[in-house]
Amino acid sequence: MPGSKSPQNGVSESSSSRTDEETPLLYDNDQLKPPSNQTTTEETVVVDEISNRLLVVTLGSIYFGVFLGALDSTIIATLSAPISTSFNSLSLLSWLASAYLIANAACQPLSGRLTDIFSRGTGLVVSNALFAAGNLICGLATTEWTMIAGRVVAGMGGGGMMAISTFVASDLVPLRKRGVIQGIGNICYGAGAGLGGLFGGWVNDTWGWRVAFLSQVPLVVVSGTLVFFTVKIPAKTSAKSKLSRVDFSGAFTLVVTLVLLLLGLNSGGNIVPWTHPLVLISLSLSVVALAAFVWVEANWAKEPVIPIKLLLNRTVLASCLTNWFTTMATFMTTFYIPIFFQVKGLSTTAAGLYLIPQSIGASVGSLGSGIIMNRTGKYKALGLLVLTTFVVGTGLLSTLTFRTPERIAFIYAFLIGTGYGGMLTVTLLATISAVSHDHQAVITSATYAFRSTGSTIGITIASAVYQNLLLSGLHQRFDGRDGAADQIRRIRDSLEELKKLPRGWHDGVFEAYSIALRGVFLTALGLALLGLVAGAFMRQHTLHSSINRRDSH
Question: Into how many domains does the chain fold?
């Protein structure tokens, strides 16, 4: 009810001291006390349940934005190689993805607190405006740095659109039913992600990659208009002075950590040797910045980006780490499956087709998991099942060669998508069920922070593995030949060079590409296995059937 209060600054407290096989061992059965630098006087608003008709209108409006955000994610995955080629730098590929994802990592965790203060509707309108502006900048970019700047702006908006849509569902839908709603949202995401690769490839092959960005702008304007008129959830805190509690310092130190890590990993062995001062200093400073981030979150921030106290909850920590590892692996496969097929000789449009089964799988896994949890009220065993599916799909993908029948890749991608989509829904409900109602937006933001940093680090690691293995493979095979250094540089900067290789180069070049891509997929497999291990540590909590739930597990 508006004005009603919920327990604050802690994990949900059990109504009984009874202990059984589902009782958490680490803080899940005791309420955490707030840290000394936080207060518990803030008023929390719990929104009344609304009619089904109004719920459909509200969620339909925000999920249109989710669709557009997903469309953009696979447009850029498919077009990264053509864009990088047009700027004569395949090393730009990782920056196109990472610039967007770093902005996600900074803004998604803040979006929970900011929209508590300024309302979900305001946050969605601002996010749509930023997303449209970023795509406009990308479509008009004439330099690499302008392109990267556009991806940063788009990432700020796209991250907010994705995260706030989840907050709105949490505000309006009881926890037990939320798995189904989240599944429907992920179907919208899957539809956008599935069509984005195909749409981006078709637009690139027909009009050029710039049109793929410019054509999104009017659609995002429509999305912003819809949420302006339909999302009417009041701010959860009454005083704008609460803005002083937002953790801008945590967001800043997190961004510095990621940028330095990205700079070091992208430069090492690619632009300069691993022993070069640029690499050593960047990676060392990233460790220092990470330590500063942890200190800020634990000791300084009033409302931390990643609440260290809540991470003492075993289920919360396990869910966040599961998201972190599996998102790293997923973004590796999402960005490098199209490159695999473009190297194989397929057009950009045809390569984009291979993202569709992964998106369909994500929709099936997410909605199916939501329906199962709605009926059973359980998620732990289901979580292990979907994570195992994810590991199997990633493992099979690592067996791909340029001689593998192309239809087999559809099956592998579908399994990866099914496992990842199911994981998203399971871990979201596991995390939310482990904390009290007033911590839902904060802990959901923290989950998104783990996903965002995971996606950024995953792309960065994949790029480092790919570029280093490719460079090493090419030099091993062709050093000593006339003009080898210049030819290797051109091969690494543009996939178009694969169509006009000198005599005697074809087999060696494709072998080097095959080893580089397999290295990426094997790295993804290792991360998928770590995600499965982390997921095994989640504990079962109650999935409540009402919004104003009792905090008992």
Answer: 2
Of 26, 13, 22, 520, which Cα lies nearest the Cα of 313?
26
Tokens for 479, please give them. Answer: 């050093």
Quote the tokens at residue 377: 């009220």
Cα–Cα distances in angstroms (integers) from residue 28 to residues 25, 31, 93, 175, 236, in the given order: 7, 8, 42, 18, 26
Q: Give the range with max mean pLDDT: 71-80, 203-212, 347-356, 427-436.
A: 203-212
The tokens of 487 are what? 């030819």
Classify residue 464 as left (phi > 0), alpha (psi -120 to 50) or beta. Answer: alpha
Residues 402 and 279 in one domain: no
User: Of residues 52 and 529, which shows the higher confidence score?
Assistant: 529
Provide the pLDDT for residue 517. 95
- pLDDT band at residue 391 using 50, 70 and 90 as cut-offs: very high
d(Cα 249, Cα 141) in Å, to the nearest integer?
A: 31
CATH number at residue 490: 1.20.1250.20
47 vs 475: CA distance, rounded Å: 62
Dihedral angle of Cα 492, 497, 500, 505, to the nearest 10 degrees: 10
Please indicate, yes or no, if residue 187 is contained in any of the structural domains. yes
- Same domain for 252 and 216: no
The span from the CA of 347 to the CA of 329, in Å, is 25
Tell me, yes or no, whether 530 lies in a domain: yes
Question: Same structural domain for residues 64 and 194?
Answer: yes
Check: CB of residue 151 under 8 Å from CB of residue 96.
Answer: yes
If asked whether residues 254 and 371 sit together in one domain, one would say no
Distance CA 330, CA 322 (A): 12
As a whole number of angstroms, the distance between CA 426 and CA 433 comes to: 11
Q: Using the predicted structure, report yes or no on whether residue 229 has a pLDDT greater than 70.
A: yes
Residue 478, pLDDT score = 87
User: CA–CA separation, 83 vs 388, rounded Å?
Assistant: 35
Residues in the chain: 553
Distance CA 529, CA 393 (A): 11
CA distance 522 to 375: 36
Per the structure, the complete domain to which residue 257 belongs is given by 248-301
- Would you state the torsion angle of the CA atoms of residues 450, 452, 458, 460, taken in this order, to the nearest 10 degrees? -130
pLDDT of amino acid 5? 37
CA distance 212 to 342: 18
Does residue 199 sit in the same domain as residue 147? yes
Same domain, 411 and 277: no
4 in a structural domain: no
303 three-state secondary structure: strand
